[in-house]
Design goal:
It is a single chain. This protein is mainly β and 701 residues long. The protein folds into five domains: 124 residues, Ubiquitin-like (UB roll) (Roll), CATH 3.10.20; 84 residues, Ubiquitin-like (UB roll) (Roll); 79 residues, Ubiquitin-like (UB roll); 71 residues, membrane protein fhac (Ubiquitin-like (UB roll), Roll); 249 residues, membrane protein fhac: a member of the omp85/tpsb transporter family (Porin), CATH 2.40.160. The protein contains eight helices and 29 strands. The strands form five sheets. The protein has a 16-stranded antiparallel beta sheet with strand order 14-15-16-17-18-19-20-21-22-23-24-25-26-27-28-29, with no helix packed on it. A four-stranded mixed beta sheet has the order 1-4-2-3. Strands 5-7-6 form a three-stranded mixed beta sheet, with helices on one face. Strand 2 and strand 3 form a beta hairpin. Helix 2 packs across helix 3. The radius of gyration is 33 Å and the shape is globular.
Amino acid sequence: MPRAKLLAAALLALAFAAPSSPAKEPKDETASFDISGLGFLKNREVARTMADFVNPGKVSWLSDDAAENAAFVLISELEERGYLHPKVEGLVTLLNGTKIPFEFDETLNIAFPRKAGTHVVAFKVERGVQSYIADVHFDGLDALSPEDAAEFFKPAYGLWSGKHANVFSQSTLRRGRNALLDVLLIRGYAGAQVDVSSSPIPDEKGAMRLDVKVRQGPRWVVSSFDLHDLANARTPAGLVDSFVGQPWSEGVRLDAAVAVRRDYYRAGYPDVSAKVVHKETPVAGGETQVAATVNVQPGPHIEIGEVRYEGNNRTRLSVIRRRVHLKTGDALDPTAIDRARLRLGRLAAFDGVDARTEPAADGVRDVIFSFDESDPWEASVLFGYGSYEQFRAGVETRRSNLWGRAHQDRFLVVQSVKSTRAEYTYTVPELFGETIDGSARIFGFRREEVAFVRQEYGGTVQLRKKIRRRGPELTGGYTMERLSDRNNTLSATSEDTENVNSASLNLGIAFDRRDQAINPKTGYRIYLQAEYASKRLGGEVDYQRVEWGAAYHLPLSPERWLHAGLTQGAVLTLGANPYVPPPLNKLYYPGGDNSIRGYSEGEATPRAADGSFLGAKTYTLLNLEFEQALTQQWSVVVFYDSLLESARIGDYPGDVNLNSVGLGLRYRTIVGPIRVEYGRNLNPRAQDAGGTWHISVGYPF
């Protein structure tokens, strides 16, 4: 039976088959599927897939055609992974214990057992040789290089780019053909055709050769683009001029129509339609010129009538109206309505916001916003691990739309082996305008550092402003906190090591252009943090703390990346008593999985002559990494970390230089990479370890 017909028959059987009633049904037992021969994890994965397709109701007995349906799932899974000629031994166990063996291959051309009350379907798989794409040859392709085109069919990834990375299957061929055809169409080859055939390579087990025949045809280029308003309602100029000279493609057709519709939307024509027609003319040189025209049917001019709101049961109307800049009598612009919907959707008060219009009178429509309000509160349980703090766990609760004003708060408690942290934050969105949020936070923190026990508690009020979607983020605030260090074994201590009150102004700017924050592969990030503490602000100490940093991520190829990070910090006491050092809590203690990785947490800090630790008043840290993908999830990293530091600000940028090199293994997850790394110290001091192992979650810089 052809594969397409077999698939259709199997799907129909799954949809309409009704199980036959057995004489006896086991209690609390679900019919199961047992797989062997694919490896432990793969056996379980395929068995779950079979159960989802063949036994979605999780009943204890299956339909008469369960064995055939399960076999189809198995063969499809094997073919997708390049096993084109498997041999499978099957065994059906009925409710009464009767066992019926059978055998089949990729043709599925046997009479499968059809018995009422099938309870267990078992398969023992002999996969055979795995087929893989070894060679790709192109005929008639000029628009891009064979090397670039081959990547559509051989999606090799990482160091292991053999048969497992380039398995041969019909779906791989279809995806490759469609991807290559899409590129040709985008580049203007409107009549392009791509055909793919395959053949085995003699004397190489499983090796397949692909022959890709391409008929590009002439390249189509836009020579002119006109706009014709069929109702003579408007005469906009220059809307589509930018498309002249571009390769003609379906994307150009759609982009031109969208540009025209948006312009008419802004003028109050929400029902506008724009249809692009074209005429092609072959010219000398192998190109085809395309003369395109946008025919516009504007429809009636519409004004806004009443603006109404539905579903805001807990949210105050004043909060909503501040974010909707639509007035009665304005031209009805669907894009302006959508912008208002997005502004409302940014509020934590709503899970969803919809907008629609309804006729109110001739040429007038009302605008209605409907809301799906968020749950008043949610809670999360947190877990994590780090080499220094080891296991940590916590609870986080959030409440939204407090007082009906879209305010929110957050309570967090985290306990690890060496630290305790608690904080409460209250946030007022869009406190000033639409881009400035305000927040107040109270916090408490206790942590066992390498040479003392850190204790800090206090409060902060802060403003945050985001400048455009991809622009910088600015923060500014005031902090009052109690700083304490206990069990101090550092060589030098501040004048009051027990308790000191600090009052400070805090300013920050961050500019983030990374592709993602959790697993960045390209882009950069720059930040600056400044803290100014003074007795004039209500504290007991005077100091200034400045820290800045930059990170850059450069893709060298689809599976290799170069990462670089540079951070620098300094603690100053300008204008203060030069004999009174800053609080120990505000000094720097480098070392650890996010610092110089040849050292444990805090152990790269400067040392006194007797070997005891000193806090650093200035430091500069350079991190360099080369990352090589092994698979889509796994990668190996070679890194170099260099630290320049000093316990005296007068020795800026530093009088102690430490260096580490190392190797790491990473596994990508949705919460960041799980990292196992070993750093070896190149120039350790007498009391330093030769190297350090780290296990952590999250990106290092």
